[in-house]
Design goal:
Dna Ligase, domain 1; binds glycine; about 425 residues; binds adenosine monophosphate; Rossmann fold; globular; about 25% strand; alpha+beta; nine-stranded mixed β-sheet
Length: about 425
């Protein structure tokens, strides 16, 4: 079969790497892809949100399945676009339709869903300009720190955690007045949950589910989890505190009610569910839903999937996921992200990269790179993920760090303390 994967980051390179290993695949195309995906498939220079152009690719290359990497095309309704088009409606899209994608696209929708299905999460209130008073009262009744979330997608920047009530009130006003554009016309104010975070990934065909290996990612730029938030600086899998008892709680209290909720609400949902969870004294609670895989978690998690991933994708598409096998590699897998100097603030693209040929015992997943005349150059804040296996997290990290050191480009930076808190 021919598969089209949409997206261009490290997550997509890791997915492409795994998909390309399947005997079921004749041709793998990635749109738009990056310098790394070009090594495992064919890049096509089309944006994932340009649906008519995606349609042309699908018809031109006889695509049999579309796998959507990032959230934006899903939230914008790529699946609905396919279902409404006579030439495309029989081509499966891995990902939810627009309504189900609201689990990520609207924090208010996600909170309402969790409330309806009794899924443990932080207490909250949704506020817009019409019930600002209620929001202010809710803030006054809470203990600091205060958590404010833009309802809509805000490229990972829409969550503010504030220490003082005055600041929280000021920011709430700013958000309602367009701090994140339309995305913050509604703001979810939440109870702050203290604990350590965990990412859990679920495959579903809308009826049954399979749980991929869990992972923990490291979002802050600085060591010791300090400094600004980034897209993610590294990840490890498995996560030591996610033992059987804890994973069982996640499955019965969160995953099963989520799948049941999807069914009861008749959401067209075949794809990934990414649960952003927090361990509050041994009790898992949902911080957020995402409707895609995590980045950089995928760059560790895909290493631990032993089964043919395309077989699992087919299970989601055809509604027989239950019959499919998911074998997990018992080894640890980690990834360490090399980023551009200045990231997550301003940084420069186009830095020549070298050292790839010296890398041994790690797998490189390109995140922000581009093929240029001078070779591979940087083309993003997060540049390349160095992923490794090990008998344990420490062994794996040692390999990733050794290899990260060999890759050079001007301004390169990576965190040397991934896994420090586990
Ligand atoms: P989100 O965009 O929902 O993933 O939020 C970004 C980050 O903010 C999360 O990864 C958490 O670290 C933090 N966060 C979000 N909601 C809460 C909460 N209710 N309590 C504590 N931390 C939170
Ligand atoms: N690593 C977190 C995310 O992909 O949103």
């Amino acid at each position: 079969m021919n598969i089209l994967l949409l997206g261009s980051g490290g997550r997509e390179h890791a997915l492409a790497w795994k998909i390309s290993q399947s005997k079921k695949v004749d041709q793998l195309f990635i749109a738009p892809g990056n310098a790394g995906t070009a090594a495992v498939g064919t890049n096509l220079d089309v944006s994932a949100t340009n649906f008519p152009a995606v349609k042309d690719l699908v018809l031109q290359h006889n695509i049999n399945m579309v796998v959507v990497g990032p959230e934006v095309p899903l939230v914008e309704g790529i699946k609905d676009f396919f279902l409404q088009d006579n030439q495309l409606k029989n081509i499966p899209v891995i990902g939810p339709a627009k309504e189900g994608a609201q689990l990520e696209g609207s924090k208010d929708y996600a909170k309402e869903f969790m409330k309806r299905h009794n899924i443990p999460t932080a207490q909250y209130i949704s506020v817009n300009k019409n019930n600002l008073d209620q929001g202010m009262w809710f803030l006054k009744a809470m203990a600091p720190p205060y958590v404010l979330k833009a309802d809509g997608l805000a490229a990972g920047k829409g969550v503010l955690i504030l220490d003082s009530l005055a600041e929280a009130e000021e920011e709430l006003n700013a958000m309602l007045n367009g701090k994140f554009g339309d995305s913050s016309a509604t703001v979810v104010i939440e109870e702050f949950l203290a604990g350590i975070e965990l990412s859990v990934f679920v495959l579903t065909d809308g009826k049954s589910y399979k749980i991929l290996p869990e992972a923990k990612d490291y979002k802050r730029i600085g060591e010791g989890d300090t400094g600004l938030n980034t897209g993610g600086m590294g990840a490890v899998s498995p996560v030591p505190f996610a033992d059987k008892a804890f994973m069982d709680k996640i499955e019965t209290r969160i995953i099963q009610p989520t799948i049941k909720g999807i069914q009861e609400e008749k959401l067209d949902y075949t794809g990934f569910i990414f649960l952003g969870l927090i361990n509050c004294n041994g009790e898992p609670k949902v911080i957020e839903y995402n409707v895609r895989m995590g980045d950089p978690e995928t760059e560790a998690v895909m290493l631990r999937v032993k089964s043919d991933f395309v077989d699992l994708l087919e299970g989601m598409a055809e509604g027989n996921l239950e019959e499919k096998k998911l074998d997990i590699d018992e080894r640890a897998a980690v990834t360490v992200m090399l980023v551009s100097g200045g990231y997550p603030g301003a940084y420069e693209n186009g830095k020549t990269m070298s050292g790839f040929d010296q890398v041994k015992d790690s797998i490189l997943f390109h995140a922000g790179t581009k093929a240029a005349e001078a070779g591979v150059v940087t083309n993003g804040g997060r540049v390349i993920a160095v992923s490794s296996y090990g008998n344990n997290m420490h062994d794996a990290l040692k390999k990733s760090y050794e290899n990260a050191e060999k890759i050079s480009f001007e301004g390169a930076y990576y965190r040397k303390d991934i896994g420090f808190d586990l």
